[in-house]
Amino acid sequence: MRRRQLLAALPASLAVTRLAAPALAAEPKVLIHVPQANLTSLDPVWTTAVVTRNSAHLLFETLYGRDEQLNPQPQMVEGHRVEDNARRWTMRLRDGLRFHTGEAVTARDCVASLKRWMVRDPIGQTIAARLDALEAIDDRTLVWRLRKPFASLPYALAKTQPSPVIMPERLALTDPYKQVAEFIGSGPFRWVADEYVPGSRAVFANSRNTRRGRSRRAMPPAATGCWSIASSGRSCRTRRRRRMR
Description:
The protein is an alpha+beta fold. It has helices spanning about 1-20, 50-60, 105-120, 120-130, 155, 170, and strands at about 30-35, 65, 70-75, 75-85, 90-95, 130-140, 140-145, 190, 200-205, 235-240. Strands 1-10-9-8 form a 4-stranded mixed beta sheet, with no helix packed on it. Strands 4-5-7-6 form a 4-stranded antiparallel beta sheet. Strands 2-3 form a two-stranded antiparallel ribbon. β6 (about 130-140) and β7 form a beta hairpin. α3 crosses α4. Residues about 15-25, about 210-235 and about 240-245 have low confidence and may be disordered.
């Protein structure tokens, strides 16, 4: 009899347990991420440091990203058209892309950014050796004219290290062997420079308020630890791990 009573009461007790289970509190508005090294630069062209690559991909975007199979997919661009036996590539930016300053992303920004990247990256140097011209024919269209075909161009533009990130033209004209003076991109987060404490604290705030357009992320940047909150209106803070004495 007691066993039957116990079994009869079991569903109700489970329901009470589910209702009474404490919530894990509201989702935090700040994500704290501890990188493996001190963040000393956010210029992923100037350095190939992993901590820079991971952090920079919160701020910057590339024309192409990678999907789960690591195949390139359009990210900042709508797509491309290939002509003249793969020696002419025409790429068109998505409408409405903006930097964190509110400025529109233009093809001129892309041309300057890619030319800077090609100086430092081995694959970029291979492309440059085949390049007749890289031109912005209007605000949203850039054209590659190659002397020899390069079928892997979208793969190269989806690289993560060194990263062919897009920044404003005035910054992209910086000597590739020197760091840019400001860190301004069009990615899901913006850099909060006045809260940076070397070796201790770096802050990235959601850029939704300044982003009018939206590119398409093909895949989260590897190991950033912050991508999951990119569209949630929250910020991300990174702190360097303190060594125990």
